[in-house]
Amino acid sequence: MFPRTERARITWIRYQGTEMLFLDFSDAQVEVSLDLIGGFMNALADREDGSVLLLTNVTDAHYDPAISAKWKTIRGFMEAALLMGRPLQGDQLRIFKTEIEAKDWLSKK
User: How would you class 87 by CB atoms within 10 Å of its CB: exposed for 0-12, middle for 13-18, buried for 19 or more?
Assistant: First the structure.
């Protein structure tokens, strides 16, 4: 299997008429995750704070505290954030087992 490119891992999608940004961290090593967060910032270049609905897949992603530190610098842009695949804590995060469950909830925000 070929590795996914950063472009393939950061995608604007429309689900039930709602635009959301999909970040695919699944199976990502720490270095890839840090690069993706940087790419995410580029995707937000023309967006206002609090205007982005974010759908994130972290299934089997590797973790390092540097990833959390980098995320903290961009939280203001997110109106709602969803994670699939790994239970985490946070007041702005909702955890779902499937992508469809997450998209359904997020499309109603």
Answer: exposed
